[in-house]
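Intended use. Records such as the AB hydrolase-1 domain-containing protein entry shown here are meant for training and evaluating sequence-to-structure methods. They are not intended to support clinical decisions.
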Amino acid sequence: MNNALQFNMSPYTHFMRETKVSLGNGIDLHVEIGGNEQHPTILLVMGLGAQMLFWPDFFCKSLIDQGFRVIRFDNRDIGLSTKIRNKGPRLNPYKLMGRFALGLDNQGAPYNLYDMADDVALLIERLGLEKTYIIGASMGGMISQILAAKYPEKIEKLGLMFTSNNQPLLPPPYPKQLFSLIGKPDSRDEEGIINHGLKVFKIIGSPDYLNQIEALETSRKLYRRSYYPAGVLQQFLAILCTGSLQKIDKAIQQSTLVVHGSRDRLLPPSHGKAVARAIKDAKFELIEGMGHDIPPHFIPQLSRLFANHFKT
């Protein structure tokens, strides 16, 4: 681990420490690390518009308890990491979505997922990590696919969660789920924005496992930590201007586990199955009843699946 970094205790949990890591490309990433420095490292890469706290503390602790060091961080443009000011033309996401669904190239986003994968590769270097294990969720899973293919020397094994390779003609996200994620709150005050966050949890999450009070507290905590809707849109544009990862998947040599929820309506299970089919010898695990989230009910099962995958 890079000894030059200054760590403080995480304000969110007693078993994690936080720091800022300058990547040297104009981006600083906000990072939290927990567990024994001698243990193998799992790097958690989160999805569209999601701060690192979307990796639940219980999930991180479950992996730490199974003998891993765990690192979570805010991607560029979200949470406490560097925000990107768009100097280019305004893009029409709806037009880009139509082209994206047909497998046509899009251009013009401030950055794409390859740039975000480069951020993660630089983070691994700056932290002085040897080969690391990766778990990427949703957009984070897309970033992780690029990372594993482009930087094979940095990644030991790959874990992917409710993600896609965005190959053409996959079933699109259900409109209600997609527009909840990129839609605007009814009002711009704190309560309006927190209620919008709660609504998103309800719409994309596991239908039978939402704890309303816990979700409300999480939404409030995320809002007070950072609220930057421009970053959510720019990350969405990054996906649309990256396109299909099918060719990338063919280059992945690492042992890969793909996990998907049977009740995911943002990225239906066929997306995860497409990823598993495209990556050589990848294993696919369908979790009955899980949506596009990581509720406490499924954490023991999920953390055990990934820990066993990395240990074998």
